[in-house]
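Action item from last meeting closed. Structure (206 res):
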């Protein structure tokens, strides 16, 4: 039987500012995206423009699509004169919504896991180099009880899903920081995922 230890209330709720992997640091918009193939935000805007303001960012879960979209969307919308629909997760929309949105006359910038028939702006793929750079950004000048080796280990366990790596490192940091007197890992996981839902920017679709 697993034993669950409960800490005093003031120590039971982790401070997001004391954990380098809290969603306030890792959510889309908080991290500067790492673009593939030496591309820049300006390059992607030009690709959008040349495709009549239609394009998709393709990649698996946790590969950085939402982070890139958060950086690209305001620049692209401004360049398009404000007439640009932004969808994070087009493949999660209903069949009818997708059919309406991918019409040639609809200006659309979206992320998708497998492609939805729009011109492809870029393909995102997780890589150890990307993980290392992001890990260093998150942990520089912040208290941190994890190591890069921990990040690599969880990268393998999470099958390259970097978003899940941050969740795992968040829990690991909390567990090591609290020692035996902290809340259970499962309890911390429920809280961290709850905060992720609250802190993730609302999906934008106009």
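Sequence:
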């Amino acid at each position: 039987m697993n034993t669950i230890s409960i800490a005093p209330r003031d120590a039971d709720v982790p401070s997001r500012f004391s954990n380098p992997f809290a969603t306030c640091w890792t959510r889309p918009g908080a991290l500067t995206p790492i673009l593939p193939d030496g591309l820049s935000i300006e390059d992607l805007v030009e690709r959008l423009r040349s495709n009549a303001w239609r394009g998709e960012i393709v990649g698996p879960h946790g590969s950085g699509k939402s982070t890139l979209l958060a950086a690209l969307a305001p620049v692209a919308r401004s360049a398009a004169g404000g007439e640009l629909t932004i969808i994070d997760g087009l493949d999660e929309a209903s069949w009818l919504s997708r059919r309406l949105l991918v019409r040639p006359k609809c200006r659309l910038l979206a992320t998708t896991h497998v492609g939805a028939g729009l011109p492809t702006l870029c393909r995102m793929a997780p890589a150890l180099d990307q993980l290392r750079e992001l890990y260093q950004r998150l942990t520089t000048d912040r208290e941190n009880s994890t190591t890069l080796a921990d990040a690599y280990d969880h990268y393998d366990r999470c099958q390259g899903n970097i978003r899940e790596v941050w969740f795992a490192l968040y829990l690991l940091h909390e567990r090591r920081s609290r020692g035996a007197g902290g809340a259970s890992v499962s309890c911390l996981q429920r809280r961290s995922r709850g905060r992720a839902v609250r802190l993730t920017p609302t999906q934008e679709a106009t």
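Note appended to the action item: Confidence is low (pLDDT under 50) at residues 1-14, 180-206.
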